[in-house]
Amino acid sequence: MCVIGVAxxxxxxxxxxxxxxDRKLMRMVAxxxxxxxxxxxxxxFWLPYVLPEHTR
Amino acid sequence: MNEAFTGTPLDATVxxxxxxxxxxxxxxxxxxxxxxxxxxxxGRRFAWWLIAFSGIATxxxxxxFVKYSAVGFSYGISxxxxxLNDWFWIPILIFxxxxxxxxxxxxxxxxxxxxxxxxxxRAWATLFIxxxxxxxxxxxxxxxxxALKSILGWDIMLGAVVxxxxxxxxxxxxxxxxxxxTDLIQxxxxxxxxxxxxxxxxWYVGGFGDFWGLLPVANRHIFSEFNEPDKFSFIGIxxxxxxxxxxxxxxxxxxxxxxxLSMRSIRDARKMAVCWILVLAPIAAITVSGSGWIGRALAExxxxxxxQASDAFVATAHFLCKPGLYGLVLAALMAALMSxxxxxxxxxxxxxxxxxxxxxxxxxANDKHYLKVARITSLGTAAVGLALVPLFEGKxxxxxxxxxxxxxxxxxxxxxxxxxxxxxxxTPGAIATLLGGLxxxxxxxxxxxxxxxxxxxxxxxxxxxxxxxLFGLVASTAIGVTVSLMTKAxxxxxxxxxxxxxxxxxxRLFKGSEPNRTPGxxxxxxxxxxxxxxxxxxxxLPADAMAAMSARESDLVYVCDHRWWxxxxxxxxxxxxxxxxxxxxxxxxxGAMRRAHFQDGDRVYAEKLF
Lengths: 56, 610
What we know:
The complex is a heterodimer of chains A (56) and B (610).
Chain A: H1 2-12, H2 20-46
Chain B: H1 9-28, H2 36-41, H3 48-59, H4 64-75, H5 81-84, H6 90-103, H7 109-116, H8 119-152, H9 156-204, H10 208-214, H11 234-251, H12 254-261, H13 266-301, H14 312-320, H15 325-361, H16 367-393, H17 396-421, H18 427-443, H19 448-452, H20 464-486, H21 503-511, E1 523-529, E2 538-539, H22 543-548, E3 556-561, E4 571-576, E5 585-588, H23 590-596, E6 603-608
Parallel strand pairs in B: 1-5, 2-4
Antiparallel strand pairs in B: 1-6, 3-4, 3-6
Helix pairs in contact in B: 1-9, 1-15, 3-9, 3-13, 3-15, 4-13, 6-13, 6-21, 7-8, 8-9, 8-15, 8-16, 8-17, 8-18, 9-13, 9-15, 9-16, 10-13, 11-17, 11-20, 12-15, 13-14, 15-16, 17-18, 17-20, 18-20
């Protein structure tokens, strides 16, 4: 879905990476997605196991 | 809400003060609604940050605090998945759907169906969307009544009438402008209270380390298991919330569509979408779920007794908050309810006037007439919603509406998505998607085992509520593609500006000439009224300002009060006229000055749009 949206924007010429605004937008979107991915990885493979489970 | 968590008189006072403040705030902005464009789209003048905060209040629905705290209590931080699932829709929203609706001046979802397909498709879309929205209005009033019964001990109907009265009063007065401004306050209230409650809870249990240690390991994962448990699996949530519901939120939610159209430019709409997805949605996820996570930590530590998941929000808030503060928490709950109800009422009014009254009853009338009808329709919508409250209390209608909504969402989402992405998709295909999709989805209720098993990834009947959405999306797509390929394609001339690949054509049509996308700067100027200017949309700027903005004559220009905190409330759109103003001054007609709420000599900034 994400690739469809970006590819459609590029093919139509509406998303124009020669324009500074569009470049900045794509940087923010890509950076944000990488950030969300890192967050998800941390909360899947690392953080759940850093502390032992509390026992009542 | 459990009656054990009823507030004190001080909490009730806080709540009443909150109600009065919101009503007063909403009524104050009534003076900014003098046209239908103001009433439905806030004059299309607002800044992205204002819409982002008000939009988050709408996103956090009537049920969110109670529902997601319950899920957070049971399943842990994976309750945030619903709010973190939206990201993959954003490119489709900002690069395809937004430019189409904004530049084609499409005012409602059904209107897109007529422009892209036919009047028949619009009629079906209008019918379905109105039934969907009015049901939600009733559901919101019922929830408001139930909440006020728990908090103040009022009868459900009395609570619904009072809440409905408050919301309707300010919606009628100021339309979208009042909705945006009150939702801004309500959004800030609910985010502040939800986050405050979470961080105070973390501090109460001894800090983040202790909080994390108290959560069972199974509750510390950001996603649940792929296909278990049946009622909260990763794939089920992804299909229902991520694909169908977010698709509906992005493409067919009339309230959010109007919110996007209320912004001063597409540039702001893009910023709002990115801020919403990367910043506000994760914060909202913590806001609505945090009490459930804290409730689980408190229960694990033995401070709170184990409780029903559905009580997690109020039980945690009641335990952590002193009287008065608990009233603020209840106000945040009310904020979530009221900010959804006001958006729905405004949206129903927009669909009724734009898609029923104008095409079928009064095609030609002046704007004042339509504004009057818009206000009456808002009142009528509230009255119908209120009349349905007793029927929704008796479960049957409530469940029927819930099933109708679940059945309706995938066909409409796919009809719009295929409409904007695929040029070969045509009118018979769209009508078949809507009606066929709804029919097949209807069959999935009595024949769930037969139809849904293949879409359930090995899960049992409890997963059907979630996986039905996936079935609906696949079935609707199959119907739409098959019928479109078997029937005649629409001529390309009918699709210009309405499908992907023609966004630049939509910009050209909007402007009436070639878009100027050369980057330019904002320019600070002093605004002067000029009686000699008769065209309210002709802005006379000095030559040096035009050069700094990279603007040419006839380019679209936006002039706004320089104080950022107005959020665009005092601003106006027009086009650059001859560059004949003196240095440091922008000259506007008296009409434009009135529309923008400018005073002669105000400091403003001007920017070229395109």
